[in-house]
Structure prediction request, 614 residues.
Amino acid sequence: MSDDVVAVETAEADIPDPVVGVLAARLGEALGDGILAWEDSFGTLVIRVKPDSWAPAAEFAKGELECDYLSFISGIDWQPVTRPDGQEGSDLSAPVQPTEMTFGVTGSAGRFQVFGHVQSTSRHWGVTIKSDVDETDPRIASWVAIYPGADWHERECWEMYGIVFDGHPSLRNLYLPGGFEGHPLRKDFPLLAREVKPWPGLVDVEPMPGVVDAEGGE
Amino acid sequence: MTTTQPPSQLPGFEVEPGSLNPLADARLAVELDTGDMILNMGPQHPATHGTLRLVVRLDGERVIAADPVIGYMHRGYEKLTEFRTYPQITTLINRIDWLSSFANEVPFIHAAEQLMGIEAPQRAQHIRTLLTELSRIATIYLFLGEMGLQVGALTPAFWGFRDREHVLNLIEGATGGRFHPNFNRIGGVKDDLPWGWIVECRAAMKRILDGCDDFEDVLVGNEIFQARTRGVGIIPAELGAAYGVSGANLRASGVDWDLRRDGKPYLSYNELDFKVWTHQDGDSFARYWVRLQETRESVRMVLQLLDGLASGPVMAKVPRIIKVPAGEVWVETENPLGQMGYYVVSKGAIGPFRVKIRSASFSNVSILPWLLRGLYVPDVVTVLGSLYFILGDIDR
Prediction:
């Protein structure tokens, strides 16, 4: 059974999109060594900044890069899902049950990251800004003063990941009831339905008996 | 009253922008004995299209602070996606914006396809575009009727439900599901269009165009409707964008921005001839007017697609077990309610590591605390109706 994935064409992906390159260069000029890494991810600039540069990056994007539109702000927890019983298939997101953290595009210094996407309604470009957040004391500057729409996004991120946004006017629960304990989108927060009964859908991917997949590359 | 400046700077609205905690404000009001009243709209108010609760602080008939309380329908899709495989997730995301489920599937499938380096065949892209536009018509057509209901006109609401059914029948005929088609596959669509569907589709589009004319006659040209909606709930363009208001709501504020034309090319929109309508006023009337024109534009697109439907297969070659290579991709599309996007983080397995779902209504509604301040209570209903949100799209 060769369930190899179709390889992505990398010949063109290696050359950054010209717009992405220009945006990265301008952000680099403005923030200097506040930028840790940047990458062209499928035509979108993903830039990772130091926590100190999280708010200045948004300010620059809004003021100079004309990114007047806030798409979203959210967080990410890079810790792999670990199940106490080590049951196979408990983490569908990794080919083998991972033991340590691996990071995505532009890397990360630790477990938590915040990322936000802003874009321009007039120039039609966008930037995804990422920043590392300390694991023991997760806090980062708020974007509310720059983008008022950051209000709800940061409240959501705060309750889902426990990341505190300094300068946010009222960090209170958005979705969850007031006395809720824990941060549901953290990877160590269990999904109880899966604890009780492992995901049954995995059997679906077994080939049907007697069926030859003519074009599936099996 | 000009609304280009924040209401907090207008006389009589000395409310701290941060002090939106209704309980704290209520205590303040008791101490000062100013006689403010807290009105609790929802979570079962008819104007909220679901379980949105709106805590409104009133001074007489006038709103001085509004605080939307959401989360009654939060289903935790971002968590659930981490426990499912890619093909299973389309079933979930059908339920985000349940009026235009097909349009929800498209960006997610597109994200997986981009990561895998697969491109759906042209006929599949055409069918996807067709069904996306049909679900746009179904969604917005209901709005065109219901908006009449918000201002007290009952008849258009029935028209909206009646004629939308023709479109839903088309979607059901092609996909098997009226509301939740789950028709997209990574690499194409599940089936080809059924026999006779194209003829049916043309007939239904004729009905929709006629219906749009009816709405124009009965509502847009109606003096009472104009009196209730013109100048009510004006969203300034820059503030709307900074709040993340998108779609027709932003275009009604004069922002000429439509991801079908301006975003990264997706589906078959670059093959189609269509106009992006904007309105300069930014009020409830402008939002209605822009959506009305967009429905007609969608019908035009559907007819163009029916004329030039490509032949060929509807599925690309994909492995039986969908494994998505490691990477991160952000895919955004112009959905009926606004910008819908998925930020997919994959680690090279059968399920995603993290999916950030950016839904349109969430950001569209987040402007309400600003927008409702200074309005009268009946206008709150008009503004809620004209923003047009789906609760599943807010809570996810």
Summary: Residues 77-363 of chain B form a domain with the Cytochrome-c3 Hydrogenase; chain B fold (CATH 1.10.645.10). The beta strands of chain B are 37-41, 53-59, 62-69, 184-185, 188-189, 327-335, 338-346, 354-358. Confidence is low (pLDDT under 50) at residues 1-5, 7-13 of chain B. Chain B is about 45% helix and 10% strand.
